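Open question from group meeting: does this chain pack into something compact, or does most of it stay loose? Before anyone orders reagents, we agreed to write out a predicted structure and look at it together. Recording both the input and the output here so the notebook holds the full record.
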Amino acid sequence: MEFLALRSIRIKTGTCRSKPHSGIRQSAQGVRRIVYPPLGHAKVVKHPAFHYNDFVMPSRAAPTNAPDKAPPRSPRDLLRRLPQVDKLLQLPEAEALLGRHPRPEVVRSLRQALDGLRAHIQSLYHSPAPAADGRELEALGGQLEPPAVFQAAAEILADRNRPHYQRVVNGTGIILHTGLGRAVLPARAVEALSEALRGYTLVEVDRGTGERNRREDRLAQILCELTGAEAATAVNNNAAATLIILAALARGREVIISRGQLIEIGGAFRIPQVMEESGARLVEVGTTNRTYIEDYRSAVTAETALLLQVHTSNYEIAGFANHTPLEEIVALGREKGIPVASDLGSGCFVDLSPYGFRREPLVAEVVRRGPDLVCFSGDKLLGGPQAGIILGKKELLERIRRHPIFRAVRIDKMALVALEATLRLYRDPAGLFSSLPPLLMITRPEKEVRRRAERFRRSLLRRAKGGGLAVELVKESSQAGSGSLPAQNLPTWAAALEVEGLASEELAARLRAFTPPIFTRIQDGRVLVDFRTLLPGEEKFLAGALLGLKNSRSSPAASGAKKPKS
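Structure tokens returned:
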């Protein structure tokens, strides 16, 4: 419908007594018009019952998005003031963003900033509280000004361009933290990755003949050397290793396992569900806490394809319990002509009992006990990248490699490079604990952890002049994590942190917002940083973040300053 474009008119306000099909409409400029729909245009009328008031209506040629400097009176006023993206792009402030970012990204960020403001304003309509007071409306009005919109867009662009997968500081005390990438790679592996990935990488070609070969052949040589296995291969993780063993050897047939070993690991990965997906049929024997070799024997049928033992690497059953030794299961397998597989979960290559841990089954020892297949992870106690390693009889490994799933779960070139470099370190047992970060953290003496934490506390408090920051050393426990060394805690020392004016949850969030992000744990209402899992030199990141937070809280303008995003 087209309205009249008069520059100045006088109309009466009041109750309209015109025709029943007429109505009163208000334009975007706030001008009241009386509209007759059948005529298709607006008509200004006079009526004795109306009171005259002056209104000004801009013409069509007048600018329609000129900023309204009057204080906003309602959320509707704010919605009318939202700037248009195409108009913002014509302003000088846009040049700086366009000089650093592609135009589509700048447009996207401006739209996202305006969408956020629009949603905020619209939420005021539905708030159970009374309409926003004048101060809140005025503050929102300030956020609609171009400088504020461009600042919000710049923050959105910075967040979009910030790498998500980045280095972090692990102060949680969990050494193999699944959420933080599990094992920290040794320096040799990082150097090998940097060198190999600068160009093309030798993956599936034999240097001598120039012919194509198997990508994991070199890994197999080192693994057989270290463990005494007949053959070896690697896939992308141990879940994949378990899946392909079951699919290649027992699809459509039975697999016997103790009820006490039907484990679940992180991410709701459950052995029964893996068997179902592989096509194998689960046969449970024994009870949760007691299983004997006769339970296995009585369950064997002509349909039995595999005897499976799973190491309960993320929990333990103690007390009135009996666990069938692997040697007895292997003997039964040979008697019946049935393959035996042992899933170790977190495979360990070195004995950690001299450092106070209960003895974990070592990979080489398990291989010597005679199972036909052994599988375990590469990124837990082994200390390498994510991988699933399978050792065992050559004939069975060939069946696994020929299975269609094998290509879907094969190891990639980056894991190949890092895993080879990690395995090479095991050729030097004397230097192993100083070369592999996970083993170094696990075996670090408690006294050394405390000395390091105390040095940090003294240095920080000396630099934090004027108060506002508190650091207390507390004795705590660390964990290996990721299902490794279950129920075995490591004595450690942590720094309990307090910044004046920040609650523990907010302090932890602020620390995660730094670069690099600093992850802590909250215990008994306090933020703790465990020094067992801090890598060399990471104290400086922690100190810089804490001093920055302390100074921002104690500065004269802190009370009125905008809080950092967390």
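Observations to bring back to the group:
Residues 116 and 342 are 54 Å apart (CA to CA).
Residues 103-126 form the longest helix (24 residues).
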